[in-house]
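Collaborator request, handled under Task 6.
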Amino acid sequence: LSRHYFALPTNCGEQFSMFNMIAFEEPDDYEDENLIDLEALKARTNQSGAGKSSKPDSILQSTTDATEWSLEVERVQFLGHITTLQKEIVKTLGKLSSREKFLNNELEHLVTEYQAAQSQLSEVPVTVSCFEMSSSMLIV
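Structure tokens returned to the collaborator:
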């Protein structure tokens, strides 16, 4: 068998039956029949491959203009740059969110104390007469 017998599709039915024959053959019959089949297979492969060439018939040529190609390359590079920036922004926003949560947890007790002081201050009656204000201004 050629190294590329199963890799290159020449006659799929023949290749399939050969694979099945090799893979599922009984061990005691294997060596005798394999030698005969191998020679027949080599002959068939040489016959079927003699008329065909594995080289391409023609080389593909681009019909794209050089300026169009340059613009497309620039567009792809720009999109790549945008994608990179987007990833960096998402990473930075994640860091900011994490820092905000940390600060909120660290300062929560101070906010609670401040709110308690505010509520106590609102309970104190504010009664200042005009006389008391003017006298306090004179003392200063």
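The cover message to the collaborator said: "The mean pLDDT is 77. The helical segments are 12-23, 27-50, 66-123, 130-139. Please let us know whether this matches your experimental observations."
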